[in-house]
Amino acid sequence: MSDSENLESNGARLPETEIVLGNHPEVPLIVASVPLLLLVALLSLNVFIFGDDAVSGSNQVILMLSAAITTAIASFYHVSWKEVESGITQSLKIAIPAMLILLMVGALSGTWLLSGIIPTMIYYGLHVMDASWFLASSVIISAIVAIFTGSSWTTSATIGIALMGIGQVLGISPGLVAGAVISGAYFGDKMSPLSDTTNLAAATTGTELFTHIRYMMVTTIPSVLIALALFTFLGFSAADTDSLGAEAIAATLDSNINITPWLLLVPLAVLIMIVRKVPALPAIFVGVVLGALFAVVFQAEQVSRIGGEGDFALYKGIMMACFGDIAIVTGDDMLDELLTAGGISGMLGTIWLIISAMMFGGAMEASGFLQRITTALMHKAKSTVGLIGTTAGTCMFSNATTSDQYLAIVVPGRMFADTYKERGLESQNLSRTLEDTGTVTSVLVPWNTCGAYHASVLGVATMSYAPFAFFCLISPFMTMLMAATQYKMAKQESHQ
What we know:
Blueprint: H1 3-9, H2 29-50, H3 58-75, H4 81-114, H5 117-128, H6 134-149, H7 152-169, H8 174-191, H9 196-205, H10 209-238, H11 243-256, H12 265-275, H13 280-298, H14 300-307, H15 313-323, E1 326-327, H16 333-338, E2 340-341, H17 348-366, H18 369-378, H19 384-401, H20 405-422, H21 427-441, H22 449-458, H23 462-465, H24 470-485
Helix pairs in contact: 1-9, 2-3, 2-18, 3-17, 4-13, 4-15, 4-17, 5-7, 5-11, 6-7, 6-8, 6-10, 7-8, 7-22, 8-10, 9-20, 9-21, 10-21, 10-24, 12-13, 13-14, 14-15, 17-22, 18-19, 19-20, 19-21, 19-24, 20-21, 21-24
């Protein structure tokens, strides 16, 4: 059975990850590394100069410049522009679904704000969530949603946005809240049989799906428990408001917006669709349509205010919520800042970042530079610990260079599959390592599709939440700990 057939038999669709790898072994390792080293140096300079605003344009320029430099160097080794162009095209093809989802999430955030869905989730959240336990609760809630939807992206775009709002009202650092949401979302994503990356890691390595999930528990459960302990500890010192302050905010919401539990039917409908395996893009589109309808029904006055005077005020208000900047004005400065949305136009900077990153990744692949670097890494894997470490390093390296978590799973999975067999290791060792390092570290790279997506949706710069995405930071170390202790390292029967 092929990888794609195996994946589809598990109930998920294999993402289109056609990989363009150059075949130019004559390229010296130092030459192949030049574009990457230059990229890291210039991106670091950007962060130093621009701070969180680096993703507003300067990082995109550097990524495109690095792609041009890669192309120029490759030309000296007889790599034609046609080859590089094909590599970039294939790389962009992989990212198109992510960019379409981003556009739809922009419209979703606008319509859900205008309809009162997000304010309603914040309102009820303030009444049921204690500030001291908020961070730990955010991890658990995000994990549950991600397990049932199989998607960290959907988790951030729905419950994640509401949790960010509640955290802001409670006076908790946005980076901390985003770190908690992402930790829970990626735990649930990894452990869900509905997840595309979970199915992809199993299919790429030829591992039975539930064997893969059971084997991931060895590293994933300890990692999330440590993360929960850290968030619990931080929760008691992170909150900077009292219950009266939260009640005042809730009262302000109630006086300016029609708060009703009927609005919660919309996010519930979206979650049910995704649990029932409706693809993310049409499910989110339905969420946009329902959000628009509920806005007209429950918040007609707000919609008309956004749309302005005239016969088509309601129509204009809905359209503006989908594509442009809108705000619900309450008179409370902090709440007014929270109740804003940028619609589809607010996502265009992130899409530009993804396009620029995929240009660089495609050029590196087509020129053979990425393959040259990863081949050099393989020669360092002499022991089991070295093999696991090299696999982990390759996954993280792929996340930084190809800017796509699917490639960070597929490329190392194909590269190392035979080596694991030769070492007498069962395939679940490889599939677990791919997830522990490829899936979870993608969100820590600002120009990776995952890092760019979550930063945009949650409204927090990647480097602001990365230090607090404890689950994602701990998982690679847990993988190496298991390799070093040889605990739960499944061996082939002939090597036992």
